[in-house]
Amino acid sequence: MNSIHQRLGLGLVGLLIITGLVLAQISFWLLDQGLRRYWQTHLHHEAETLLAAIVRGANGVELDQQRLSASYKRPFSGAYFVIVLPEQQWRSRSSWDYNLPLPTGTGLQTDLIDGPEREELLVYRADFRRYGKNIQIITAQDYTPILQSFHRWQWISAGIGMLALILLVLVQRYLVKRALLPLEKVREQIAQLQQGQRSLLDQPLLDELKPLVEQINHLLHHTEDTLSRSRNALGNLGHALKTPLAILFSLANRHELNAHPELRDQFRQQLQSMQERISRELGRARLAGEALPGAYFECAKELPDLCSTLQQIHRRDLQLEWQADASLRLPWDREDILELLGNLLDNACKWAQHNVSMQIVLEQNNYRITIDDDGPGIAPELREQVLNRGARLDEQIQGHGLGLGIVRDIVEHCRGELLLEASPLGGLRVLIHLPLNRL
Questions:
Q1: More exposed terminus of the chain, fewer Cβ within 10 Å: N or C?
Q2: Nearest to 405 by CA among 349, 324, 339, 329
Q3: Cβ neighbours for 415, distance < 8 A, ≥ 6 positions apart
Q4: What is the pLDDT of residue 4?
C-alpha cells in the first residue's frame, strides 16, 4: 500500500505542479496583454495630445512647450516622445542624451526596447497629417515597474502555490489512505490466510471490492476441492496397489524361484522399485498440502516433545539437545517441518554414539537448520548417494532408507538447500537453508 501511496502522491504532485505552472504562465500572459492594451490606449492619447501641441508660429510649424506634460520635461522620467516631420524633428527633454529608436511600423511595438537607465520601453507610433505635412509621433513608456511587479507576484504566487500544494498533498494522502483502508484489510486477511489463521476472506464493506473478494473465495474453494480430489485419488490408488504388491512380494519369496536366482533377484528389484515409487508419489501428494496452509511450526512448542519422543525410542543415555529462539516460528506447514526434523533427528540418533545437537537460527535471508552427531559420518564421495530415496549404506540398520529422500523432497518443496558436511562432533552434519522469502 505504501508504494500505491507514493505513486499516487508523486502523480498528484507532478500534475499539480504542471497545472500550476501552466495556469500561472497563462495568467501572467493574459495580465501582460491586458496591461499592454491599456498602455497602447494611453500612448495613443499621448500622441494625439502631442499632435495638438504642434502649432503654426511665426517661424512656421512649432511645438508649443506649454502644452507638454511635465513628465516629458523631467530627465529620465519614463515618459518619452519623438516627433518627426519631413524637415525637422523634436524629442522630449526627458530622454536627455538618449535617442529613441524609430519603429518601422505603426501601432504598439511587439518587443520592448532598451531605454535609458536600464529601462525597458513600450513604444507606440502613430502617423498623422497636419498643416499639409506627414507627421510621425513616437511615444514610449517605461515598462520596468510593471515587470518588477510581475516578478514579485511570481514569487508570491510560487510561495502560495507551494503552501497550497503541501496542503493538497497532505489532504490527498489522508483521502487515499482512507480510500485504500479496505484494500489494506483485504491484504491483512490474505496474509492471515497464508499463515493458516483463516480459511476465507471476509466480505468487505466497500461494494467495489466485493466482486474481487467473492472471486478469491470461489477460487480458494475450487482449488481446495481440486487438490483434495487429486490427493484422495492418488491415495486410493496407492492403497489399492499395496495388496497386489504384497502378493507379488510373497510370490517372489516362494521356493519355486530359488532355482532361478537371477530371475528372483530381478523380480524383487522391480517390485522394490515400484514400492519406492508409489511411496515417493504419495509423499509428493501430501507435500502439496492443503489449498490453505496449516498451522506454522512453533519451535519452542514442538521441539521439546519431538526430542523427548526420539530419546525414548532410542537410548535414554543419548544426549539430544536443541537450540532455537523461543519466539522463532518457521513459516511452513507444521506437519512438513515435523517430518523433516523427525527424519533427520531419527537418522542422527541411529548413528550417534553419545551426542546429537540441533540448532535453528534466523539469518539475514534464510532459516538455517543444523543437525550434528558424533557417529561415524559419511565419506564425501558417498554423501550425494545417500540423498537418493531408498539408498542405504548399512543394511544392518533398521529402516527402509527413505528418510533422507523424504527430507530432500520437503526441502525442495520449500525451495531450500540441503547439504551434508563433516560435523565438529566427529560425525555428520546436515545443513539446511530455507528461504526467508517463500515466493
A1: C
A2: 339
A3: 434, 435, 438
A4: 58
DSSP track, 11-29: HHHHHHHHHHHHHHHHHHH
Query: Amino acid letter at 317?
Result: D
DSSP 313: H
What is the crossing angle of helices 261-287 and 210-252, to 10°? 160
**Position 50, amino acid:** L
Q: CA 19 to CA 26: how far, in whole Å?
A: 10
- What totals of helices (H) and strands (E) does the chain contain, helices first? 9, 15
One-character DSSP codes across 167-214: HHHHHHHHHHHHHTHHHHHHHHHHHHHHTTS-SSPPPPSSGGGHHHHH
Length of the chain: 439
Please report which residue ranges of 299-333 form alpha helices under DSSP H: 299-313
Q: Are 122 and 112 in contact (CB under 8 A)?
A: yes
Task: Name every residue whose Cβ is closer than 8 Å to that of residue 439 and which is 6 or more positions away in sequence.
Answer: none
CA dist 383 and 348 (Å) reads 14
> Per the structure block, which three cell numbers stand in for 339?
517430518
Residues (pLDDT < 50) of the chain are 287-292, 389-402, 439
- Alpha carbons within 13 angstroms on the beta-carbon side of residue 84 total 13
Q: Residue 411: exposed, middle, or buried by beta-carbon count in 10 A (0-12, 13-18, 19+)?
A: buried
Place of cell 548417494: 385
Radius of gyration of the chain (CA): 48
| Per-position DSSP letters for 217-267, written without gaps between them | HHHHHHHHHHHHHHHHHHHHHHHHHHHHHHHHHHHHTSGGGGG-HHHHHHH
pLDDT at 370: 95
Neighbouring CB atoms inside 10 A of 172's CB total 17
- Cβ of 423: how many Cβ atoms within 10 Å? 23
Q: What is the pLDDT at residue 312?
A: 82
**Looking up cell 474453494, which residue turns up?**
221
Alpha-carbon distance of 289 to 433, in angstroms, equals 21
Residue 396: predicted pLDDT: 39
Query: What single-letter amino acid sits at 75?
Result: P
In degrees, rounded to 5, the angle at the alpha carbon of residue 341 between the alpha carbons of residues 337 and 342 is: 110
Give 135's contacts (C-beta < 8 A, 6+ positions apart): 51, 54, 83, 84, 85, 127, 128, 129
Which pTM was predicted? Answer: 0.45
Pairing of the two strands 319-324 and 417-422:
unpaired
The residue with cell 484422495 is 232
